[in-house]
Design brief:
With about 675 residues, the chain is α/β, with parallel strands linked by helices. The protein contains 26 helices and 21 strands.
Length: about 675
């Protein structure tokens, strides 16, 4: 007898231990949202694919989240805010302003002076300027099919080459007479480029002004083009309209400055060109040896129209609480004119030059950043100072760049954006995002998509966590009252992987709320589970727990009634709580709880599509992926209940029509509670 009692005790203890183990496993399964890592990864991948459609290539996944909180976009001007389709429209030589007609890269157009068409060969000084810019550039004009012209090289140099071709100064002919010997490439510090050519034929009709036919030995011509203020500093003479060099007086310097400012106010990019004839080539190709004692030739006014689509994009960014700051190497007047034309400069805000920026210490710079919309005549070091100043004020900064020297600023910013077309490999490797079309609009679109992606992640995090908290309570509360567990471990796995997983993936395809770009950026320090979400998780966990345990309770009552185990004069709830349910078949009750919670989560998938807006405001069925996901999950759920093969696997049993009506009614209640919660949050503001 003692041996038999011990065996019975061991069997009883083993059964209890197994039951406790299964409860522990169920709680562990309920506590961990198994599908969350997969859903987050897939959502980011889908978001990146969507960004590629919008011409934004994300190189680092973390940048997707950061984009959603961007507060400042520091954008280059040329090619990003403008079309980067340069056309020379003005040429200024010796106080004479020539107009240039024609558009694009087709070398067809006329030169006008005082409204009259002129033959440029009658103005040697102007022709010298046109020839010099061709010699001091690397761009080539190509033609295909006899009429389709394109520029190979820098667009600015291409515009100069095209203007020269309109006057008959073609690169192929000039290079035969003036082969290049050496060059000093353009850099952002010097703001100019220089070349040295050998003069092979001193009497050639393409010759520069001056009579060299009597010279013996070799002759070389140095040409230099760049920013007008830089070129003037290294010039001692200027070329007269008739072709004779004249000493550069203060009066002439004032006229050049005035012409430069006049062109800049018309939103023209202005370049100057100069030259010097030497009896010998420089011993070494350095800026110091070439860029001195030059003859000033003239100014070229180049138009680069703003992209028409940029104007609404700047407005859209401002409505979203995002400032746009233009950073350019052009003159302040040129930058201001472009900024005004696209609506970038706000009333009362200023334009600051790089020279003014150099005079400010870090603290002073932080103070003026809030009302400065344009920085002109800047270099890469200025970009880093601007980024640092903005970050000191707590801003999340996106910075664009394309050159090698821009890489430090791209790395220093929160979101480095490189140009995919004109950008260097160094800039692209450093950046977090690469624009495949070099367009400012793509930056705004990427910010919008970043907000949508982050919002979608929050939606399914809320969806999964609220369901998991409810599952924990559904397992934990009955255990406290020594009742059978409403859900088995395999049912919980089914809920987490199938019932929750498919709708959560479909939520990743949400297009975002209609007002996603009408709200300010989220604070940088705001956690993903913020106050309203915590409230929502609490409310939903309670609502789902109540309806699921309610379904389980009704199932237990009906089971006890079917077994004639429920006295007629006893409160069913008190009886269930105080009754030992061991040995009673609770499969129907578990099935009702399982189906109720499953349908709860499927119905709720429609209500969590927006954190603020009602399901009727966004359209119940506007996300077709969610409709199909819920439909598929519902079909699979019904199969686990109605198909006999699945009943022993999932511990389910077929439900009667009345039971189906009960679980459907209970399952709808959390969705209704969710809509009421969102209504409360909307009126609360």
């Amino acid at each position: 007898a003692p041996d038999g009692g011990f065996l019975i005790y061991l069997q009883h203890f083993s059964a209890e231990l197994t039951e406790f183990f299964m409860i522990a496993v169920s709680l562990a399964i309920a506590a961990v949202p198994e599908g969350l890592p997969a859903v987050v990864t897939i959502t980011l991948a889908l978001g990146m694919r969507e960004m590629i459609k919008r011409h934004a290539l994300i190189r680092r996944l973390a940048a997707v989240e950061t984009l959603g909180s961007a507060r400042v976009i520091c954008s280059d001007k040329t090619g990003t805010l403008t079309q980067n389709q340069m056309t020379v429209v003005k040429l200024w030589v010796d106080n004479h302003g020539f107009g240039v007609t024609g558009e694009g890269y087709t070398p067809k157009g006329e030169f006008t002076l005082n409204g009259q068409t002129v033959d440029m060969k009658l103005h040697p000084g102007a022709m010298a300027a046109l020839r010099a810019v061709v010699l001091c550039s690397d761009a080539y004009l190509e033609v295909s099919d006899g009429s389709d012209y394109r520029v190979i090289g820098d667009p600015t140099e291409g515009a100069l080459v095209v203007a020269a071709a309109k006057a008959g100064a073609h690169r192929a002919s000039l290079e035969k007479v003036y082969p290049r010997v050496c060059e000093v490439p353009f850099d952002s510090e010097r703001k100019c480029m220089s070349t040295v050519q050998n003069i092979l034929d001193k009497e050639n009709e393409f010759g520069l002004p001056g009579n060299f036919s009597g010279s013996s030995g070799s002759l070389y011509v140095a040409t230099c083009k760049g920013a007008p203020d830089v070129i003037m500093q290294i010039c001692t003479h200027y070329q007269g309209i008739d072709g004779d060099p004249v000493p550069l007086t203060d009066e002439m310097r004032s006229k050049i400055i005035s012409a430069n400012e006049s062109m800049a106010r018309e939103a023209l990019r202005v370049l100057a060109v100069s030259y010097r004839v030497d009896p010998a080539a420089p011993e070494e190709a350095t800026a110091k040896s070439i860029e001195q004692n030059l003859v000033f030739l003239g100014l070229f006014g180049i138009i680069d129209p703003a992209r028409p689509e940029v104007i609404p994009a700047v407005t859209k960014a401002r409505q979203a609480g995002i400032r746009t700051i233009m950073i350019t190497g052009d003159y302040p007047d040129t930058a201001a004119a472009i900024g005004q034309s696209i609506g970038l400069i706000e009333p009362g805000h200023r334009v600051m030059s790089g020279a003014e920026l150099d005079k400010l210490d870090s603290q002073s710079l932080v103070g003026i950043l809030q009302d400065t919309d344009v920085f002109a005549r800047v270099n890469p070091e200025h970009k880093m100072r601007i980024v640092d100043g903005l970050k000191q004020t707590g801003e999340v900064v996106a910075m664009t760049g394309d050159g090698v020297n821009d890489a430090p600023a791209l790395k220093r910013s929160d979101i480095g954006i490189a140009m995919g077309i004109t950008g260097t490999d160094v800039a692209k490797e450093t950046a977090d995002m690469v624009l495949t079309d070099d367009n400012y609009v793509s930056i705004v679109d990427a910010v919008e998509q970043g907000r949508i992606i982050y919002s979608n992640i929050r939606k399914f995090v809320f969806f999964l966590l609220s369901s998991n908290v409810a599952e924990i309570l559904i397992i934990f509360i009955p255990t406290l009252f020594a009742l059978p567990s409403p859900l088995t471990a395999i049912q919980l796995l089914w809920l987490n992987m199938v019932t929750d997983g498919a709708p959560a993936l479909a939520l990743a395809k949400e297009k975002g709320d209609p007002d996603v770009m009408m709200r300010p950026p989220r604070p940088k320090s705001e956690p993903i589970i913020h106050g309203p979400m915590r409230l929502g998780i609490f409310v939903q966990a309670i609502a789902q727990t109540v309806v699921t345990l309610g379904a389980f309770y009704l199932g237990l009552v009906w089971t006890l009634q079917a077994n004639n185990s429920l006295p007629a004069d006893v409160n069913p709830l008190l009886f269930v709580l105080g009754h030992d349910c061991t040995g009673i078949n609770v499969q129907t009750a578990e099935t009702m709880a399982f189906v109720t919670l499953s349908l709860c989560e499927l119905f709720r998938a429609f209500t969590v599509r927006s954190e603020r807006l009602s399901i009727f405001q966004i359209g119940p069925f506007s996300n077709i992926y969610l409709v199909w996901a819920v439909a598929l999950s519902t079909v699979l759920l019904v199969m686990t209940v109605l198909v006999p093969f699945f009943n022993p696997i999932f511990n389910t049993s077929p439900l009667s029509l009345t039971e189906w009506q009960i679980v459907l009614g209970l399952a709808l209640m959390p969705a209704v509670v969710e809509e009421i919660t969102k209504w409360y949050l909307r009126i609360k503001g």
